[in-house]
Write a structure and sequence with these properties.
Layout (H helix, E strand, L loop, with lengths): L1 H18 L2 H25 L6 H16 L5 H17 L8 H28 L2 H19 L1
Length: 148
């Protein structure tokens, strides 16, 4: 079942990359990012790290969009997210001993989800759809070979 769902999602992604413009792909990437963020936040809860859900989700989405937006510096978005999330965590009233864990857990979605998804859309916009598909085929083949 897992292989079948992976094949269907892979085919849907390939069709989207091939036929849709970059702006539509950005919208799809943002939706995927939100779904991944919800899963990430629940995993963080299990290890007792508090993710500031709304600001951290917004930071991840802005990071993804900044990768594609012309004239936008992604490093400025990430610096602003770091300062804002640090201030929010420190103002949340939780002990300072856990503050670093909470800031890191809140910033991680921007780095782990926003940057890669935004990079895929940016590659699509700047280099083209064949580059995105080649990159993804390389990753899939590499991961499959490592598994077996």
């Amino acid at each position: 079942m897992r292989v079948l769902s992976g094949a269907v999602l892979g085919a849907a992604f390939a069709i989207a990359v091939w036929w849709f413009p970059s702006l539509v792909l950005l919208g799809i990437a943002e939706i995927v990012l939100l779904m991944a963020f919800v899963e990430y936040a629940s995993l963080a809860d299990r290890v007792h790290a508090r993710v500031q859900r709304i600001p951290a989700g917004a930071a991840a989405m802005l990071t993804c969009a900044a990768m594609v937006a012309p004239g936008t510096s992604v490093h400025v978005v990430l610096m602003a997210a770091t300062v804002a999330l640090g201030a929010i965590v420190l103002g949340s009233g939780r002990s300072h001993a856990n503050a670093l864990i909470d800031v890191a857990a809140s910033l991680m979605p921007a780095l782990y989800l926003g940057l890669p998804l935004g990079a895929l859309v940016a590659i699509h916009a700047e280099i083209g759809r064949t580059a995105v598909l080649l990159l993804l085929v390389t990753v899939v083949v590499s991961d499959s070979a490592q598994y077996y």
